[in-house]
Amino acid sequence: MVSIEPHRFPGVFTITEDGRTLLATRSLVPGQSVYGERIVMTEEGHFRVWSLNRSKLAAAMQNGLNEMPIQPGSKVLYLGASSGTTVSHVSDIVGPQGVVYAVEFSPTIARGLIRLAASRSNIVPIIDDARHPARYAPIVSSQIDVTYQDIAQPDQARILHDNVSTFCSYGAWAMIAIKARSIDSTSDVNQIYSREISKLDGLGLEVIEKIDLEPFDRDHVFAVCRVREDIK
Ligand code: SAM
Known about the structure:
The protein has seven helices and twelve strands. It is an alpha/beta fold and 232 residues long. A hairpin with a 5-residue loop joins strand 1 and strand 2 (12-17).
């Protein structure tokens, strides 16, 4: 017996089956499996099971995320889109009234993203380096509500700041997956997280929540930030 219920985060669902609970989103494109994920078909729509091991956003929700600023209608700037695994679920959540500007700098990896965007009108693929927001500013036509970043770079705090300060206003949101070992290969991970969080704070991004992604992603924390008035 399978039952599907809305999650407390709008646009997200839970599937309960044989005593197990899975996360899912309602597919914008019925019948489409993007990365081999299972589709559960009901009269209410086709629900794509959201892999906790393939998506840090799903892992953060599973581990108790409290704030989920990505909602139906949100305008999202997604940095480090890869082939579109998490982007596809974000596209389901924001729906036809929202948009996902998905930035990926590797043209080879971006092939899957471009295919995905061809079937979903709310994804705008941008093949460029997230270190240069001014280069893609002409493509990002909306004011951004949420900047999401998963790029595993040593200067990821600065990259996030430069995008937020280009595309967002006071009160907007940022979500960042911090990969400790991309920043420092030897120090204690908790020290690395504290340093990164202070760095974000110093750049005008107030960290309001931080979630460890174990056991789904090793040495990663996921942080939710609010853009402060003093961001430069
Ligand atoms: N967020 C993806 C998901 O959940 O489906 C996985 C992202 S993967 C961990 C990181 C991606 O960021 C890689 O595809 C990499 O090519 C991309 N990347 C790294 N540095 C980047 C940069 N400076 N600009 C744009 N993309 C970058």
